[in-house]
Amino acid sequence: RTTMKSLRFISAEAFVSNAEFARKSLRAVAHDLFPLLFKASYLLEQGEVIHDLVENWPLFDFNMGKLLGATLDYQEDLSHRTCSVCLESCLTGLRDYVLNQSSPYMKKLRVVDLTGIKDVEVQFCKCKKTMGRWARTQLLSKLCSELFYLQQAQCNPGTFEISINVLIDLFVTERNYELVVQALLKKCSCPLKICCVAFRCDNLTLQKFFYIIKLIDPSTLCKLEIVHNVHLEMEHLEMLFNSIHFPLLMSLTLPARTFNVRRFTATDEQMLTNIGEKMGEMTQLAELSMSFSILTGRLQKLLSPLKTPLKMLDVSNCSLNHADMAFLANSFHANHLEALDLSGHDIPELYPSTFFKLLSHCSSVLRSLTLEDCNIQDTHVNMLILGLSPCQKLQEFKFIGNPLSSQALKHLFTFLCELPILKNVEFPVPRDCYPIGITYPIDDASLCRFDHQKYERVAEELNLILLQANREDVKASTPLFGSYDAAVQETNNELGAYLIKSFKEALEKFTTSFNKMS
What we know:
The protein is α/β, with parallel strands linked by helices. It is built from 20 helices and 13 strands. This is Leucine-rich repeat-containing protein 14B.
């Protein structure tokens, strides 16, 4: 699909396509043309031109999301292009904006907003090399430290009267922790001031997490993701909420096993109550993810203190019981849920009517529904269709890991064609593609042991159903090992090394204990 370009944009492309000419001519360019030239340069991956445009930026703000988003001159949104050439040129141009004494423009820039950049799976840039959130965190921190040391050396004292707030979504792991900490510690004395809007941490000790969370200014934080290899348990979460205030927090993701009610004492019950009350003080909180915790019978205690309704809730694999589902279906959150993940719960067996009640309450706003490994079988498909029919705003439906036959999937796909704005479907490998006697949920060792040729035939038939209904806009796939996660993809080498190290340490402890017993 070709996106229309205005004559202005075509002219801008022609201007920046000759990098040498464009760089020499920038001094004669009107200020209001800089945004147009920036987007044209980004589209053509003209790194040198991007660098010089940013180095000489004549406006008060520089907002990546707006600059790369849909404009009257060129409707295509380029904010999902995390092209390494373009982004590195952009950030080094920002550093040189501070250092450049010969720029003909008065330095007006006060705010740089990098939060509009979207990390996606498929990249269209020619260089095919991306700069993800972790790498952007790394490079900005490095440039801030460079500027600080240049200031200490007093190269150009006048340049350091500049003060620019750089809004960014930080991603910190063990590997870039020290660099980010140093940049945050120097924030007061650095012309580029890191302002963290969203913070994701993985593979960090609790001590390091608690230290850095105080450095990033929690009072401005809108999104907090504590994931995977941060061993945060309930007592640490209570400590976090008691010691730090998050007045603007809108989205909270907690690591697996933060809660485990199976080993609760009276003290733990009180701790859970305190955590619920603290979350109730977060008046902006609208998104909550607590997957792989054990919350049986405690959802009400945790969520009832919330004063604003949740728009996104992920309680996948949380061992919810009927009381939890009844609370959710009858709560004021139900009418506002735009994204819901109930994966890992045997919905047809445990609480079918309560689930459909919840679905009917959120049907007018629901955009994303995930029901992976929920034991949905062929006999449940008609009821599922009935429950999903009012969900006319549904854009995404994921139901991998359910024991459905190819015939049932065809029936379901025929219905899914009727959902007007559905864009993404993740469906399971049909049960009849696996050997007879396979048990669900399928373990990792058996996951790939299915008839691949038969699966391909069924997948073609399902896509044909979409095609015949003129729904080529719907993407249907079977990601066996979960949906694409840009953050995990970017740091998988570090996380893999950490897991191997942890496994080795556990093995050594076991061997030592075994030898002592012997």
